Amino acid sequence: MRGPALRGRFRPPGDKSISHRAFLFGLLTCGETAVEGLLEGDDVLRTGKACEALGAAVERLAPGRWRIRGPGLGALVPPRDTLDFGNAGTGSRLMMGVVGGHGVTATFDGDASLRKRPMTRILDPLRLMGAEVLAEGQGGRCPITLKGARDPAPIVYRTPVASAQIKSAVLLAGLNARGVTTVIEAEASRDHTEKMLAHFGAEVRVTPEGAGRRVDLVGRPELRPNKVVVPADPSSAAFPIVAALIVPGSDIVVEGVMTNPLRSGLLTTLLEMGAGIAILDRRVEGGEEVADLRVRASDLAGVDVPAARAPSMIDEYPILAVAAAFAAGTTRMRGLHELRVKESDRLAAVAAGLAAAGVPHAIEGDDLVVEGVGAPPAGGGLVATHLDHRIAMSFLVMGLASRAPMTVDDVGMIATSFPAFRPAMERLGATFE
Ligand code: S3P
Fold first, then answer.
1. Residues with CB under 6 A from ligand 1
2. Same structural domain for residues 114 and 152?
3. Predicted model pTM
């Protein structure tokens, strides 16, 4: 991808996390759930298919507008076939929570990337609630056959890592438990499940506990159908934002970006680096804070990113590493152990991409250190994407402004989260070769 200065306005696709949850709550709510602004990426569509397999009627009315008629809590049907989640960690793990607490048996599988991802972090609490794992791949990985508990035990669970997926799986199973299910997290992770539980009428209480939070959910609520309006995904917005920062002369507006503080770590970090980002027209859409972001090309400076910020920008480190490669000075990103178990080992994949682009860097324990010289890096390398959409998009963005263009070995999986990435970037002025 190459290009002159980027110009124009652009609305990123719907948030992936909220889109998955919109389908799942549609399944668990008896009646009609309307969704607007759904991300029609492969990951989310697979969650939709899985909801159909469990008894929901799922209908696309118009681009981004969907209707789900769910059987509701306790009325799920056992799926006839394997639930194939493709590349989708979130979809598969949240659905394990649903199945684990709802007395049905289902087999979960996916692509080569999903088959490498750890699932015991989800299966462990579900076992405590009474679910049984009937079959699993090596090391508790997919393919996994899970027999859900008919009458799940309400538990108090401390998540071993800050993970919204673990928290959400336990809460979704806890929806069908008699009594209060509690999740305690040492660091707060994204809170979309808690918000959506409240939006659909469940009794859920969130209280600060140390640096983290405690979530208490009263089981077996009468979920009420509701409309879900999906805001623009800050994790997808990250790519045009960094592109505009590094391509000289750029000036773009990214519209309707969700600014939920538990998702805004990248924005905080880029502002600390000296990014020219103006936050305009702050408002609330669909229960989430959103804003338009005007982004102008900027001279960036290296910063120290604390480990405590990781949960609020866990998916944004690959593109932050790209920004850091153009910044003057050292950027140290701390506490990135969770990056090793994403769609790829992102710590290794980012380091290999930086090496391919001639950017000095090091992995020191769980930290990634990038040495920028305040000028475009050489570029010109070939990046192995390992079926990871965010690795592909990050290094394509780097290629917009590195001295030689970057090449990635695969772009097919970009459709999991940002199907219109290429046309959207082209409209802003980028060129793909
Ligand atoms: C997500 C949680 C995060 C994130 C993923 C989406 C979610 O994963 O990386 O892309 O929607 O709950 P973890 O919970 O594993 O940190």
1. 17, 90, 163-165, 168, 189-190, 314-315, 338
2. yes
3. 0.98
